Amino acid sequence: MATTDAPPPAFPSAAEPTRARRWVQLSLVVAAVLVGLGIIVSVPWLRHAFVLCLHGNFAGLRVYIKSLGTGGLALLIGLMLMHALIYYPTELVTATTAFVYGWLPGLAIALGGWLLSALLSYLIGRMLAGPLLQSLLGRRYREFERAIQHGGTPLLLGYRLIPVVPFSFMGYAAGAVRTNLWTFAWTSVVGFLPLTVAVTYLGSRAQSLSLSDPLVWAAPIGSSARGLADRPPGAPAPVPAG
């Protein structure tokens, strides 16, 4: 009597769960951005302030912040946190903080707020960017990871000193490769301190400021030139923000 062996059960290929995981991670990234946009749209005072930031309207932003009284501080911190998800020129918020609250109090508020924003971008990078980059880059992800790790403290400081690199980018990258959180935090503060000092000082003195005003770009250009001049010989040039 002839017997017929049953075919072995089919197992899903390794590519299928990888592809599914990639789509899940991409969906989470999109969902995070949509949540941020949803918060902005649903909160009128935040929406209005965000539009002013996008249009580079320093005069309008400072008047609006002052009109809110103590609520203005919460709005400024909210704008800084939103920057971890949605890009806009950081100098306007930093300058407004100093104009409304004065140079030294504004400097303290700006440093604290941007540190919280940096830590939020690190968290996003750790939870979402890391797994997503692993899926998208494959074996090249290890090269990316080694580049961040080998750069270490000088790399983290250097990219904070160069304002043409989006503020949140290093947070995503550091979180993705699981850089030590304490190292990331202190290098962030030390790295963006010079530019923050300059912008808050200008903001506390300016009567009007916009993206077309040379005062806005004087500090970033000086910081960029200093960062490039201090780059060690043979070190790779920083990649400008796209």
What are the main properties of this structure?
disordered C terminus; 242 residues; mainly alpha
Which SSEs are present, and which pair or pack?
Layout: H1 15-42, H2 44-54, H3 58-67, H4 71-82, H5 90-101, H6 103-137, H7 140-161, H8 169-176, H9 181-205, H10 214-229
Helix pairs in contact: 1-2, 1-6, 3-4, 3-5, 4-6, 5-6, 5-9, 6-8, 6-9, 7-8, 7-9, 9-10
Q: What do these coordinates show?
A:
- The chain is mainly alpha-helical and 242 residues long.
- It has one domain (22-229).
- The protein is 74% helix and 0% strand.
- The protein has 10 helices and no strands.
- It has helices spanning 15-42, 44-54, 58-67, 71-82, 90-101, 103-137, 140-161, 169-176, 181-205, 214-229.
- Helix 4 runs parallel beside helix 6 (103-137) and helix 5 packs across helix 9 (181-205).
- The radius of gyration is 22 Å and the shape is globular.
- The model is unreliable at 11-15 and 225-242 (pLDDT under 50).
Short summary:
The protein has 242 residues and is mainly α. Helices cover 74% and strands 0% of the residues.
Count the strands? 0
How many domain units?
A: 1
Termini Cα gap: 72 Å
Mean pLDDT: 76
- Low-pLDDT segments, ≥5 res: 11-15, 225-242
Main sheet characteristics: none
CA-atom Rg in angstroms: 22 Å
Please identify the structural class as seen in this structure.
mainly alpha
Beta content = under 5%
Query: What string gives the helices and strands in order?
Result: HHHHHHHHHH
Shape: globular
Count, helices: 10
Q: Which percent bin holds the helix content? A: over 70%
